[in-house]
Amino acid sequence: MGVRAAVAGASGYAGGELLRLLLSHPHIELGALTAASSAGTTVGEHHPHLAPLADVVLQPTTIETLQGHDVVFLALPHGHSGEIAKALPESTVVIDCGADFRLADPVAWKRWYGSDHAGTWPYGLPELPGGREALQGARRIAVPGCYPTSASLALAPAYAAGIAGPDAVVVAASGASGAGKSLKPHLLGAEVMGSLSAYGVGGAHRHTPEIIQNLSAAAGEPVSVSFTPVLAPLPRGILATCTAPAKPGVTTERLREVYETAYADEPFVSVLPAGRWPTTAATLGANTAQIQVALDEDANRIVVVAAIDNLTKGTAGAAVQCLNLALGLPETTGLPTTGVAP
Ligand SMILES: NC(=O)C1=CN([C@@H]2O[C@H](COP(=O)(O)OP(=O)(O)OC[C@H]3O[C@@H](n4cnc5c(N)ncnc54)[C@H](OP(=O)(O)O)[C@@H]3O)[C@@H](O)[C@H]2O)C=CC1
Ligand SMILES: CC(=O)N[C@@H](CCC(=O)OP(=O)(O)O)C(=O)O
C-alpha cells in the first residue's frame, strides 16, 4: 500500500520526529513537507539527523500544498488546524498533534485556551478503555498532549478497575523539547541546564482538563486532578509520578494484577517487573511507555510512575500509531520499541 503523507510544521520538533518515524514506515511515501517562516529552507537545516531528507525544500503551509495527500499530519501551534482540516476532503486522514480537537467540553476549551472551540475528534490514545475502537477507520484524529499521555497511561487502569478514589495528584518532569523549538528566554541552555523548575503550579497548566477528561472517562465519574509540571534539564523525556487514594481492600497484589491485566496485550506499554522503576532514558526514541506501581500503605495511596519520550509516544509515535489504526494496518507498523542507550 502506498500512502502519500504530508507533514505541516516539518521544521519543528514534533514535525522532525514525525519525519524520522515516517522514513522507516513501509507504507508511507512522503509528499509535501511544510513550514511557516522556514519555508524555502531545507529539512537538513532544521534536522541534521534526517540525512535522507537533507536537501528537501520546505514549502509554505497552505491548503494547496497540503491537498492531494492520503494523510496530512499537522504539527503546528494551536489554533491553525481547524481551518486546514475544513478545507481538506473528508476522505483525507488528518492527524493533529496540537490541542485544538482534544477536549470534548467547549466550556473547558474556552476557559483554558481562550478561543472558540473548533470541535472534538477521536482521541489518539488507543490504550485508554475503548480508545482503540474510536480510532479504527477514523479520518480525523487528535493526538494527546504529552503530559496527558503519561498521566493517563499511569492512572486510567486504576480508575477503570474501580480501585482508585477520585482525587489524583500528578507531578511530571519533562525535557525542554516539550516546549517546541521557538526561542523562549526561560528555555535558554544556561537557564535549563543544571536545574529543575516547576511551572504552571496550582492547577494552572492547560493539560489539566485533558487529564481530567481521560481519568473521569476511565472512572465513569468525575475525577479531580492536581497537576504540577516540572521542567527538567533533558532534551526529551517525561517522568510522571501519579498518585490516587486506594479504595478499601486494595492490596499490592491486586494493584499489580490490575496493571498487568490492563497492559498484557499492549505492544507499547510495559509494566516493569517488581522492583524496577521507569526511566526516561529507556524510552528515548521509542514509542514505548514504561510503568511501575506501588501501594503506599501508610498514605493509603496508589503510586504509579510512567516514563515516555514526549516526542515519540508523547506526540509523533502516537500520531503514527493512530495512522496505522485509521488505515487498518497492524498498529505497530513502522514504530520502534527499542530506545537509544546509554
Ligand atoms: N514538543 C512536544 O513534545 C509536543 C508538541 N505537541 C504539539 O505539536 C505541535 C508542534 O509542536 P512543536 O513541534 O513542539 O513546535 P515547534 O515550535 O518546534 O514547531 C512548530 C512548527 O509549526 C510551524 N509554525 C509556526 N507558526 C506557524 C504558523 N503561524 N502557521 C503555520 N505553521 C507555523 C513552525 O514553522 P517555522 O519553522 O517556519 O516557524 C514549525 O514547523 C504543537 O501544537 C504542540 O503543542 C504535542 C505534544 C508534545
Ligand atoms: C516542557 C514544556 O514546556 N512542555 C509543554 C508541553 C507541550 C505539549 O505537550 O503540548 P501541547 O501544547 O500540544 O498541548 C508545555 O508545558 O507547554
Helix-strand blueprint:
Elements: E1 3-8, H1 13-23, E2 28-35, H2 43-46, E3 59-60, H3 63-66, E4 71-74, H4 81-87, E5 93-96, H5 106-113, H6 131-135, E6 140-142, H7 146-160, E7 167-174, H8 189-192, E8 197-198, H9 208-219, E9 224-231, E10 238-245, H10 252-262, E11 269-271, E12 289-296, E13 301-308, H11 312-327
Parallel strand pairs: 1-2, 1-4, 2-3, 4-5, 5-6, 7-9, 11-12
Antiparallel strand pairs: 7-10, 8-9, 10-13, 12-13
The structure holds NADPH dihydro-nicotinamide-adenine-dinucleotide phosphate and N-acetyl-L-glutamyl 5-phosphate.
Write up what this structure looks like.
It is found in: Cytoplasm. The protein is α/β, with parallel strands linked by helices. It has two domains: 157 residues, 3-Layer(aba) Sandwich (Rossmann fold), CATH 3.40.50; 164 residues, Dihydrodipicolinate Reductase, domain 2 (2-Layer Sandwich), CATH 3.30.360. Helices cover 28% and strands 21% of the residues. It has eleven helices and 13 strands. The strands form two sheets. The protein has a seven-stranded mixed beta sheet with strand order 8-9-7-10-13-12-11. Helix 4 links the parallel strand 4 and strand 5. The model has no long low-confidence stretch (mean pLDDT 97). It binds NADPH dihydro-nicotinamide-adenine-dinucleotide phosphate and N-acetyl-L-glutamyl 5-phosphate. The site of NADPH dihydro-nicotinamide-adenine-dinucleotide phosphate has 30 residues, from helix 1 and helix 11.
